[in-house]
Amino acid sequence: MDRESLKALIVDDEAINRKMLANILDDFTNIVAKDGHQALQRAQNTDDLDIIVLDIMMPEIDGYEVCRRLKADPKTEHIPVVFVTSKGSEYDEELGFRLGASDYITKPFNSSIVRARIDNHVRLKKQCDFLEKLNVTDPLTGIANRRALEETLQREWAQANETQQPLSLLMIDIDYFKAFNDLYGHQQGDECLKRVAREIDSLLLSSRSHFSRYGGEEFCIVLPEVEKTEAQQLAAKIISAIETASLEHRGSTLNEKVSVSIGVTTKSARLERASDLIAIADKALYFSKRNGRGQSCFMD
User: What is the pLDDT of residue 188?
Assistant: First the structure.
């Protein structure tokens, strides 16, 4: 494990206990909290936490309630929680595990044993994170796959409904890709897919833009808080960037170079489901291709 990148949230209302646990995890980046409110806030505001070390007996919100809320939140539910507490009854321990804790350590404790148990939980989390990443990553291009797209689109659709912010979507298709594979072979086809993906990815400056491979030679971009005009501008930039890349394609009627067609749409009040955005963008893509390819079309 890369120790320098590990992050721990240490939660205890006693300063001496926080310091002791921080010393045990001295090669972690330690974020500390002195009560339940602060713990929940810092868990929300800290990305990529690897472990939460949590006391139980704290004022206002005890550790059990903190754990319950952490496990109910999609952002924090997968972070292992280790209780370190003086409450040592079987009932207390069982309750901790039922609430989703990964481990339960009673005080007084042996520092080396605490460290070994925390290391095991962090290692297991890293393995799970790796497998989850494989599950949502396209193995050829390294970008998100269709499963990740569907999850992201559902989440951003719900967020757009709640905040009344715009949500746009681009469907992108490599023109005459079957002809490319027939002419150059599937290995070169794979290289073409990877190159096009890199070119598009380099244009996405917002961390909230979600770029994925939809299937075959089709890609999709979900654009939260992006209006129609900005989405159309991005489509134009993508078309220009692929043209500028000058990838040879003698099977294309468009200057014998690889090109893309794009369907663009923006969420409107009449749409009922997140999947409607895909359907409309796909229809817009169809018109882009029917009208000559190498261009974009907007539909709402």
Answer: 97
Among 93, 156, 217, 218, the one annotated catalytic:
217
- 36 close to 58: Cβ distance less than 8 angstroms: yes
pLDDT at residue 3 in the model: 56
Residue 141 lies in a domain: no
The range of the structural domain enclosing residue 59 comes to 3-135
Place of tokens 């200057």: 255
Q: Is residue 223 part of a domain?
A: yes
Collect the ranges in the chain with pLDDT lower than 50: none
* Residue type (1 letter), 95: L
Tokens (6 digits) for 114: 């605490």
Name the one residue in this structure whose structure tokens are 């409904």.
161
238 contacts 207 by C-beta, under 8 angstroms: no
Output the pTM of the full model: 0.73
5-52 pLDDT tens trace: 899 999 999 999 999 999 999 999 999 999 999 999 999 999 899 999
Same domain, residue pair 210 and 258: yes
**Alpha-carbon gap, residue 50 to 121, rounded angstroms:** 9
**Residue 124 identity:** L
Whether residue 181 is found in the same domain as residue 84 = no
Distance in angstroms (rounded) separating the CA atoms of residues 284 and 300:
9
77 is catalytic: no
